[in-house]
User: Fold these one by one.
Assistant:
Number 1:
Amino acid sequence: MDIARHWRGHPARYRLQGERNRNTGEVRVPPHPLALGETPDTWEPLKLSGRGEIYSFSVLRQVPEGYELFAPYPIALVRLEEGALITAQLTDCAEADLEIGMPVEMVTRQLVDTGADGVLVYGYKFRPVVQ
Amino acid sequence: MNKTSANAYIIGAGATQVGEHFVRSLADLSSEAVRNAFAQVPQLDARHVGMVYVANALGEMMASQGQLGPYLAAAAGLVGVPALRIEAAGASSGVALHQAVQAVQAGACAVAVVIGAEKITDRLDAPLEAGLALAADAEAEGIHGVTLTGQWALLMRRYMHEHGYSMDAFAPFPVNAHANAAKNAQALYRFAISADKYRKANPIASPLNMLDCSTVADGAAAVIVASEAIARELPGPRIRVAGTSVATDTPTLGARRDPLDLVAARTSAQAALSQAQLSLQDVQVLELCDPHGIAAVLALESMGFYERGTAPREAADGAISPTGRTPLATAGGYKARGDVAGASGIYQVVELVRQLTGKAGPTQVAGARVALAQVLGGVGVTAATTLLVGE
């Protein structure tokens, strides 16, 4: 993992720092470059709650370089309370218990194998809400 | 392009066997594909070639080679011809063909060669998965260990949830692909499979299992695109490129209003049909991006061939077989012919040319005159659609 590349992703990956469109109310994370016609005022920063539900999920057994250590692992599209749909891994759960609509919450975990350069990359994953 | 543009024709199309070509290089495979295409038009002087387009998705990552335009042009002896490489992940070939057709229609050259080539098997599966995942949004999605297969799996599970299907409903797609590939000498997997065998296969990215996942393999295919003046000097049936169109969508799956709607697939198909002055009902044989049944299902429904939620039922009723309403993967598709990543779109055209010239053998679609090919880069991030008409 390239250090600078990971560093600029910290706010989103560590704190689910997103942004909300002042005109339409649309919420997104991570923040996105400005589109034509937008100004720096178009989007305001928004720290997301980290709560949502599973929109869909899959358990991966063939995984990319750097992720072999964690395989097999579940990935999901999570619909956050604020409306954004994001991709993340699920954790602290058994495959058989997962279902669409299940409430989940954000936790911070290691995302990628440290690799040759030893960089530890942390970021959000989601786990079933502990009742 | 508009209706007054000059016509462009496919005058030659050839490919190599799809496979694990451990003893052959990217250049070697490309050279064979180009020679096979030119063997169909012995009258054509290679000095007429004014442009070479190379379609390739993974050259740097898997074949350790850059500047693929001149590199693969030279491999086929086309030294000195303007050449460039086009990368649009799995849609590379469709985008390259679109560019070649536009160049010929505009009169910029009379003959263009499009080469689709991938060399995968020099490296292992993990770098391949990493390379394929680059088709998604690397910073927002790739970092979480998501693969391209995983993204299709997410859409498959959501589709099953919304429309009340079990994974068994997707069996007709790999079963059809393998049945057709068994009759294709250039296919990777020349054997049939049963729905029962599909049901028992090991999971890869649940609910996708091994028999609903394509194998990415080595291969090269080439087509020769020529002006009408040149095509008319040649004997035999002519294959006119009646429409080509490229459309795009956001690479971030979660940013789409409805992830089950492949907007780019629909947009590019509609534009290509409109250029061709044809409708969906005119299409008699199809090649789609079908590494998994769900990919074909979403493309068929997004384009409007079938109502949403109905394509698996239609497939179970025989709609995708060579005698069905929308014959699909007559050479085996991505699943059984083999998934050649950025080269797939040219393999599609090679098969459709066989169909439109009545040379498709046991999987021939009777009387096929209009064919549609569509490739997708990533999960419909890029879509390129080509309409071919036999004259």
Number 2:
Amino acid sequence: MLRKLENYYKPSSLQEALRLADENTEGAKLIAGGTAVMAAKNNEVKTLIDIKNTGTDKIIKDENGVRAGATVTIASLLESNEIKNYCGGLIYEAAYYIASTPLRNMITLGGNIIQTFPWSDLPAALLLCGAELSVASKNNIRKLSYINAVKKHPSLAISKNEIVTEVLFPDLTSYTGKFTKFSQTNFDYAILDAGVIAKIKDGAFEDIRFAVSAAGSLPQLLSESAALLKGAPADDKGAAAKAARHAASETIFTNDKRVSIEYKKEILPALFERLIERVVKENKGGN
Amino acid sequence: MKTIEIKLKINNEDKILRVKINERLVDALRAAGYKGIKKGCYEGSCGACTVLVNGRPMNSCMIPAASADGFEITTIEGLGESDNLHPLQESILETGGVQCGYCTPGFLISSYALLKSNPDPNMDEIKRATDGNLCRCTGYVKKLEAVERAAKKMRGDK
Amino acid sequence: MKDKKTIKNAPADKFESGAPLEHKDNFKIVNSSIKKVEGPGLVTGKPMFTDDFEFHGMLYAKILTSPHAHAEIISIDTSKAEKLPGVKAVLTHKDLPRIIHTTAGQGYPEPSPYDSFTLDKKVRFVGDRVAAVAAETLELAEEALELIKVEYKILEAVLDPLKARAKGAPVIHDEDEARMIIPLAYDKNTNLAAHAEMSEGDVEAALKNSERVFEHTYESHYAQHCPMEPHVCITHLDPNDRLNIITSTQVPFHTRRIVGQALDIPVKRIRVIKPRIGGGFGGKQEMLIEDICAALTMKTKKPVRLEYSRHEEFMSARTRHPQHIELRTGMNKNGDLTAIDVNIIMNTGAYGSAALTVLCNSASKVLPLFNKVKDIRFYGDSVYTNLPVGGAYRGYGATQTYHAIGQQVDIMCREMGIDIIKFYKKHHIKEGEGSPVFQKMGEGKEGVEMKIGSCGLEKCIDIGVKEFGWYDKFNKKRVEGDWHYGAGMVCLMQGSSIPEIDMGAAYMKINDDGSFNLSLGATDLGTGSDTIFAQMAAEILTVQPADIIVYSSDTDMTPFDVGAYASSTTYLSGGAVIKTAEKIKAKISKVACEMMKTTEDDLRFKNGIVYSASKKEKVSFKDIAYYTLYEKNQFQIDASASHITHKSPPPFSAHFVYVAVDIRTGFVKPLEYLNVTDCGTAINPKFAEGQCEGAVLNGISFALSEEFIFDKKGRLLNTSFNDYKIFNAVDMPAVKTILVPTYEESGPFGAKSVSEIGINGALPAIGNAIFDAAGVRMFSGPYTPNRVLAEIKKKMKK
């Protein structure tokens, strides 16, 4: 409950939202799905700017890739054929196990990737595909790669007067991606999230990327581990297992009250091995 | 606490509610007499407060009432009357899917949304659609069966 | 469930009544799945629950709780909170009489230690009460809590139950007043909250003479009930200044008594109303919040509402008592069980709610199942710790012991090469048999000797083996990639009511139209008891359940009942309903004779009409009602009856589960779960199945996911559904229930209990299935992926 809340704005255009964001940098917070704001016990927030009606809720495909508005809900992502078909279903799989049906109707793409809770599922998938954010302010629009956004927490990479309007999932036509969420129950925070995307040419990995989240406080790209597989034959299970093992040592883990770091280290290789296997399998099926 | 006025449609009726600016929609609706909406956690994790917002099930405890201006809301009170039950309400009584009944309204709202978009769901789809509605009494078996049964009735199958 | 061929005739004199039972083997209303009587109201969202009540000028209460596991309150400064506009009352221990009591919702004299004050100057667990506030809004009440300044002297805490009784351990209840009010073992100076033991034969000698002795230690874990409706009550003073308490409780009459005791208010000044309850599972068999809410009303003279948040439910409400069980059993070459030796240390947390009785039930609801064993020893201590408080929870001690013995049977059978199915069929208690445990283990006093009147367990096992495909699944070593499959089973019993202790009463009267009001103290907490009572009364009076208007419970309006616990409502309160309905029927008969000028043996009852066989005349119940209310010799046809039980006949059940274990992550996926249950006659088969299914899924969720995570200082860290995960619809396996009808002659229409038994199977059955799948034994719950993987790794190292 926001005890000190004084203003609730629901602008009907992006311009108006940007103006309000510009005028209310002190004690103001953007709200879209609302799930993070409502769950917080924040006594500092005086103003909420609801950007649900700013028209940033479209999903379109163009020559650069798939563009999804920041206020697109998780449910809408899952209903979109563009997202289903994107990169072997990478984003679809990452979105599929987020929270529950009613919450998926509320949680937004923008909210999920900007809050970037340790257990958030989409951020790792965004890292894998090299997503790019459009960040608008009153007089400007800038592009921010998601990789840069999560070097520190995204909230630090975006100023108070800025609004993320769109996520570009760059064209990855020749890639296949798979994502897995490991959790105790279905409607649960991830114990570990892992994703792999790869481009396989002539039976070998021309490019491959690993990402993990729910391990540390921020999602991580595991470039070293993925590099071990670059050029390796796609069916080389030994190489895959080696890279998967390396992923456990490359990942930075922080404490999780539910399970030990050792446990997470123990299971991460299995998750990556299975992901690689699925990527390879689908790639074969696709040819 | 500052209050504001919101205009919205609840169960097809135009309503004007005066709500506290920081109020949750669940509390505003209950205060307006829609007591069928229950609350079990205030954090979006139990589903007792599920209502339809513009046709989609959402946790009304996670929605600021102030944002609801212009919303079309369906609550359990909008599904059917005691003497004219919706097939879902009828079915869940027939299968024995109501025990304490506290989670029932939220569950029915989620199921209602499902059957509107998918008149012939399989069991996995029913489970997925109601994955946000926790129940401690029934073990879900007879509730899920009720959704199947209602779907059949609504399709006119034998 | 339409097959009633196995149902035997009930003796006509089963109940002391004016008329014999009809339809003994041809029930019309009973044993059919009618719809819930209050169903339409529930599915349309009518205001029925406590929080749906509105009172003008109602205040909102909030409780300040302790951040420390063990501390003395040196000082409390409430002045700032009191000055906050809108705050109407702040209470601390200084404002209330210091009256010791137990919060356990049990009959008097309670077999739980008196160790609680409404507010105390000492706190004994993180979440314990410190102060209470009533304010005009909930936010103001919350804000006021932040303004209360408390100075604590932090004391050393006891966080390990195994060390609670060690020399020099901090004493949790060092107050002079703490005591047991009945002569039972209690030693607050060594943190002993309760003790129970029994012995039969010579266990040591029997073990010595056994072919093999099996000795293992099992740990069962904390769990929360998680009713979807949290604890909530509204208190107010009625126009006569009587304290009215509207509360979501399983025990309205005990609550009235205990609130009166704790606040020193005469019982006649208190009225407790139980509206619809949103689930309880034992968690609401407790006077948990009513006293403090009432105290705020007494201080302010205003209606006050107190509702626990979900966080508070986890932090401050009751839990399942964790048990440390050291179990020794012996077996002979031919697979006969020779001796059972159970040693339990039960963690009751900071207060001793049900500390003794849960322990006793760990013996009495489990050990008699193996009644062929002549040498049995049971020894248990309930110990205080500075951790969350135990209390009644569905299964009530049996759940914990079945975790141990249900796995030990599997271990023994495996290691001795015995077929577990044959073992259970041979060893379980049969009809006509008794067990010394029944007599030796009561609840706060000696138990009751009893012979089993009905037992369908053998049939349950046979049906289960076939339906589940036991021999196609068990010990098959099926492996698919990293997934290893396995099956496990367990057999169970429970009880029905607490014999010679519990009492339930009913009251009935006829209305003008020939309908009846049936008032009961028994509390329907979602089980459907209001409906099954309507079925029972309708069966006897030959009317429809809709003609019986059931009301429960209100201490001013309904007769006494101990409440909903101990698997008693159907069996105990059902007995009262039958007696009452029969008394009504006798009165109706008398009037019908008067009206038709005939004799009782000439009367036939059908569909609410009384026929004279000889005169070809008839009078309807409506005619009779009009006659008695308006016409001649006017009087109200009404009746009341009470019922106590002399035995606690066990329901029986066989559980079968099929799981897959991911041996690289330790994740256990339950695939199929079958429970085959004998609850006597199911008064409402669908409701009975629902009880089984709900209990089973709660058990599975408890076995695989639910746990309390504490920090080093005893603070519970996962206090929400976000991190205390109970199963949702997607998590569940295919759950199936098969009811096996038997006829329990001592029960209403042959019924026994069904609500608790189903929760006991998952821990042992899944434990056994994990072993079957992955070859690792889970001695400690829950079987979370990290725990299972740790065992798999240990095994691989060997």
